């Protein structure tokens, strides 16, 4: 195991890339006692990186890292404040010995609750009820049961497991798609590898896979054509998992019945984009995991990992840079 200990004679330099609004000064007080903190936005990153020991990325939508990355003496450790690490997966970093970690675990429960809420919303037609309320229409109708419905979770990491446990708790039949086939998984039951073969059996499809070259545009026209006409699609992974035009066509033609999209491609979604107004579509602004207190939890998770780094202990949530995520 590689040692992450630091030179005790020199305070390590931590550059914190924020998205325009840095956290409160005291949020990383116990880290600041032992390190020099440099706060920067994307524009200032090239000037801030020289001499940096640790890069802490709090700007979740950043694309600034490849251009700003120093050719010599890069940071020893990059910590992503998000679960997804695609912003750090560029050739110079992947091929280096720089360690990348993420904030796995902070968002799992909140995203699982979001998925359950969207599925119940579809089944109980809350959107239709609100529309009728606005119209002052009293129209009796039947809704669907959640219990007994089948859900295919595409992505078997920590968030996928949290989703599976919550959906099982309300009686849904859960299966999953991952890298390795297996049966008897305590959360997913059966895990397959052939997405197209499993899509026709699902009433709901939940995309939560990390964005890698293997998963980019995983949901294309053929994938949506394989789904049931009454199936709903929920994306809490990355917008680039989906060919957006193919999703629009599937919704317009009735190939699928609806979609709940917390992530889209592009982000933010332009005001004139057809997804805003297509029937059966629900859009949220990439906030499915943003529970009250999440930002403080991210900083605490980094501080805990910094304790490990200073002490020379193994870091938590180390990313396999060839896979593009933390192995399960």
From TrEMBL:
This is D-2-hydroxyacid dehydrogenase. Residues 117-287 form the D-isomer specific 2-hydroxyacid dehydrogenase NAD-binding domain. The keyword Ribosomal protein does not apply. It holds the Pfam family 2-Hacid_dh_C. InterPro entries: D-isomer_DH_NAD-bd (IPR006140), NAD(P)-bd_dom_sf (IPR036291). Keywords: NAD, Oxidoreductase.
